[in-house]
Design a protein that fits this description.
The protein is α+β, with helices and mostly antiparallel strands. It has a domain of 206 residues: Aminohydrolase, N-terminal nucleophile (Ntn) domain (Glutamine Phosphoribosylpyrophosphate, subunit 1, domain 1). 41% of the residues lie in helices and 15% in strands. It contains 23 helices and 17 strands. The strands form 3 sheets. Strands 2-3-1-9-8-10 form a 6-stranded antiparallel β-sheet. The protein has a 6-stranded antiparallel β-sheet with strand order 4-5-6-7-11-12. Strands 15-14-13-16-17 form a 5-stranded parallel β-sheet, sandwiched between helices. α8 links the parallel β14 and β15. The longest helix has 24 residues. The relative contact order is 0.13.
């Protein structure tokens, strides 16, 4: 897995040479392929490394940035504003414009721990200051890319992949965390900062972790509430402000990377992003989509690409994919997501293995719906019914206990243990401390979506295919969100309730008007809803939309990604063998509600956890 990893030694007389074998094992387990570019560094008490994505534009550049006594290893995408560039150039006498990441050690030298407030992007970084002897882990405001940490009396270790921490042999023991397993299965992802392995935790967002001989200390440098304090600008100015901000967020990538990939589906978010790029160099753009043969997510992008003369790859999820490619990609999906993503998401990695050859950046519409749409959410894989109930109850442990007791999970002996349920309640209480004191339910909901759901669900997705490609979504760009928060389009400015017809229309018109403002032709092409974006803002189009909605309800949902056969294929390919380490939850494989998630987790436990049951470094 592309990312960063390292070992910080807490013993004064420890030698890094003693730990080099453990470090090598850690890096070996971090990388997916021997072809990935790797860069390592060390000081008197730290070893650290970066592994780049196979398609990363950073492959030809140093992955660890240095200036004076400071070395910075980072993963992700970092952006430095023109004003900060000018400051560095003036103060340090730099006469040429550097790449964004080259400014990091200079900005640290100037701002010290104020550094993360003066950059934007989606990143984790390890800062090693040999002058002061201090080391720090710093992530972005939303903690978008997961970073995992473990600490004992001897050392503090961190990595972008859980298996990497287990492989190094520095943990005191390896023990499954059944509370986290229950959390994952009940809420659809682990909402706390624990993982499936006891002692390994996820770095909290907007944090600076200071590493010392005496231990680690975490401090937050930013709070989501600051986004809620923006003064509302006039409604007449909102559209132009949002359009300009989104354009500038997109240009951060478009102007810095020569070749980019865009997932163009039959939907709206990717169409919106593409509209901002159509006036630029189209040779830099590679479109793709995946779907069952003759599905809207194949036919519509294919039609648009042909009419607009754009490079397009149709990634068919047909019988050939199921027979030849599904199982290997199912394995990689589960392993590279640290057990968090299930086999029905295998086509994402399958697509990344193909598309990274066309460019190192994936332009994504991730979180576009969550940012631009209004109203309370409907239950789905991103936000389960159980999680929505927990949020709406103000994170009540009693509501959780009642729901958990009524679920099939409570029937498993391993979850009968009151310690597991009590541990989950303790975790929920900590989440309540973080999100329970907002002024209203709408503020609380948006805080949870940005500071928990974004990183724990979507960040896990992006992390799972980071070995192949760097993913960027302008919808979570911090500068864009500052403008968004000042407009009447910001969802937190509305009550937490089901969206009214007028609010739904406002969202529809926003998408359509943004596309028509930037590249009108894209608004004319049909979407997967059966009508065009332009239809959404005309009277005749509204009549058409109404009829299409009635028709779609009568037809029902299609298996657009051909996932129905995957249960049997995965069962026969991976789950037919005897389970040893995962027997405590393998009974769930007979329950259709949990078969997919539980089956994937069973596979991860058998494949990964079982490998590292023995051996620690003494």
């Amino acid at each position: 897995m592309a990312g960063i990893a390292g070992i910080y030694l807490k013993q004064a007389n420890a030698s890094v040479s003693v730990y080099r074998l453990a470090f090598d094992k850690m890096i070996g387990a971090l990388a997916y392929s021997d072809k990935q570019c790797k860069c390592t560094g060390e000081t008197g008490n730290a070893l650290f490394a970066v592994v780049a994505a196979l398609g990363s534009p950073e492959r030809s550049a140093p992955l660890i940035k240095k200036h004076k006594n400071t070395s910075i290893a980072f993963e992700g995408l970092i952006f430095v504003s023109d004003s900060e560039r000018k400051l560095v150039n003036d103060v340090y006498g730099i006469s040429i414009d550097l790449d964004n990441s080259e400014y990091l050690p200079y900005l640290y030298d100037y701002y010290q721990l104020g550094l993360p407030l003066h950059i934007t992007g989606q990143f984790n970084m390890f800062v090693c200051d040999t002058h002061s002897g201090n080391c720090f882990l710093i992530n972005d405001r939303f903690g978008y890319l997961p970073l995992f940490c473990y600490e004992n009396e001897r050392c503090f270790v961190f990595s972008s992949r859980i298996e990497s921490l287990m492989a190094c042999g520095l943990m005191d023991k390896h023990e499954l965390d059944y509370a986290s397993i229950a959390e994952h299965l009940f809420f659809n992802y682990v909402i706390s900062d624990h993982t499936f392995i006891k002692g390994i935790d996820t770095l909290v967002p907007a944090s600076i972790t200071s590493l010392h001989m005496s231990g680690s200390k975490v401090q937050n440098f930013w709070h989501f509430s600051s986004l809620l304090d923006f003064k509302l600008i006039a409604s007449s100015q909102g559209f132009e402000a949002l359009n300009t901000a989104l354009s500038e967020a997109i240009s951060k990538i478009y102007t810095n990377h020569n070749k980019i990939n865009i997932s163009l589906t039959g939907g709206w978010d990717s169409r919106l992003l593409l509209s901002y790029l159509m006036k630029g160099d189209r040779d830099c753009i590679s479109l793709y989509s995946f779907g069952a043969d003759q599905s809207p997510d194949i036919l519509i992008p294919q039609m648009i690409a042909e009419k607009e003369d754009l490079r397009y790859n149709a990634i068919l999820l047909d019988d050939n994919y199921l027979n030849s490619d599904f199982l290997s990609n199912a394995r990689d999906t589960i392993i590279l997501s640290n057990g968090n993503r299930h086999y029905k998401r295998s086509h994402y990695i399958y697509a990344m293995k193909i598309m990274h050859k066309y460019g190192g950046i994936l332009f994504s519409g991730i979180f576009g719906d969550e940012v631009l749409k209004l109203g309370k959410p409907q239950d789905c894989s991103v936000l389960s019914t159980n999680l929505i109930s927990l949020i709406e109850s103000n994170f009540s442990t009693e509501v959780f206990r009642t729901g958990f007791k009524a679920s099939a999970l409570s029937e498993l002996p391993v979850f009968h243990d009151t310690d597991v349920v009590n541990e989950l309640c303790d975790r929920i209480e900590k989440i309540c401390e973080e999100f329970g004191n907002y002024a209203n339910k709408s503020h609380q909901y948006y805080a949870f979506r940005f500071m928990n759901n974004l990183r724990k669900y979507f960040g896990t997705e992006v992390n799972s295919y980071s070995d192949f490609i760097d993913c960027y979504s302008p919808f979570i760009d911090f500068d864009f969100l500052n403008v968004y928060a000042s407009t009447h389009f910001a969802g937190f400015r509305y009550p937490y309730a089901k969206a009214t017809l007028r609010q739904k229309q406002q969202t529809t018109e926003l998408y359509a008007n943004l596309v028509m403002h930037n590249y009108p032709k894209l608004a004319v092409y049909k979407t997967d809803r059966g009508y065009s974006m332009k239809d959404a803002v005309t009277i005749t189009g509204s009549i058409k939309i109404l009829s299409m909605r009635v028709l779609s309800e009568s037809i029902g949902r299609l298996d657009a990604f051909n996932t129905k056969p995957t249960d049997a294929i995965f069962q026969d390919g991976f789950l037919s063998r005897e389970c040893h380490q995962s027997q405590a939850i393998s009974d769930l494989l007979r329950n259709s509600a949990y078969h997919c998630s539980a089956g994937s987790l069973v596979y991860w436990i058998e494949e990964v956890f079982s490998k590292y049951l023995l051996g620690v470094v003494s």
